[in-house]
Amino acid sequence: MVTERVKELISEIEQITVDSKDQLEAFRLRYISKKGVVTELFEGLKNIPQEDRRAVGQELNTLKNLAQNRFQEFNAAIESASDTNPEMVIDLTLPVVPNQQGSLHPLTIVRRRIIEIFERMGFNVSYGPEIEKDWYNFSALNFADNHPAREMQDTFFISKSEGEVKDDMLLRTHTSNVQVRLMERQKPPIRSIMPGRVFRNEAISARAHCVFHQVEGLYVDRNVSFKDLKDTLYHFAKEMFGKESKIRLRPSYFPFTEPSAEIDVTCFICKGKGCNICKYTGWVEIAGSGMVDPNVLTNCGIDSEEYTGFAFGMGIERITMLRYGINDLRLFTENDVRFLRQFEGA
Ligand code: PHE
Predict the structure, then answer these.
(1) How far is the CA of 161 from the centre of ligand 1 (A)?
(2) Aminoacyl-transfer RNA synthetases class-II family profile domain: from which residue to which, for each copy (predicted)?
(3) Which of 10, 102, 211, 241 has the smallest set of CB atoms within 10 Å of its CB?
(4) Regarding beta strands 124-125 and 190-199, do their DSSP bridges make them parallel or antiparallel, or are they unpaired?
């Protein structure tokens, strides 16, 4: 009788599955707890005739061990499931942790925008070395041997030549070196912009830095005129600073362009009325430019009778400062996240 019951219970326990803590608790109450069936059967042992008691006792022990082993197994399975099942470890009622996204550096944002505007006008993008020969940074660009820009206070020289021929190595002071390299290896038409890092030996302050970025542009073809230069930069100014922007050209001087002009754009902070960004002139300077000097074309193996070209160059830091109203150049290199975070999603 008891043996029958034990057999039933054994097969019952062997077939049971337990998937949750609640089911596990029900299992424990039914088979293992002090009020469970196994205890009850043990208590009934005293009513079993003396001669059978030992055998029945052994059967009950088997049942008890089975129940306990199964309980351990179920318990372990549920514990390990709750380690990997996110619903069991993540408290879905907790408030959301804000998504901490990085942001592009403001100089990257502006460089990409400048590139995008010129690409739409048919310019491609060229790059060149930051460590450069004198020829590409100066001589080919029509800098006289004694031009002050070659002097130590402006240029970081890497090696200085002794002889007559200038073969110094230096850190480029502008990205115009890429213009020379491009003209040397490619026949016109050339229509390209050159973004990059440049170096000048200047004390670091709010308005000057020894490392900064430029984008230069070069267009060489038959019949390229000053009007093309003006139209190109006017279009750029409207795209970059807003449709109402106007530009003005002021005569200037660069060894590699003739004639040369400084490009100003109407101050987009005060719309030309006058504010401290434009120093109450209504205009801010954004670029140097000019028609490529025929000497430069000749130096690069391009026939200056057949071809003309224009070039321009602008500082990415300067444009970024104007666009975002930033008043200190040093902020760009300090990597203060409070500054950088302001450009999230820009
Ligand atoms: N290379 C000049 C500079 O660094 C900028 C410039 C480029 C001016 C092309 C005219 C034409 O200041």
Answers:
(1) 25
(2) 110-342
(3) 102
(4) parallel
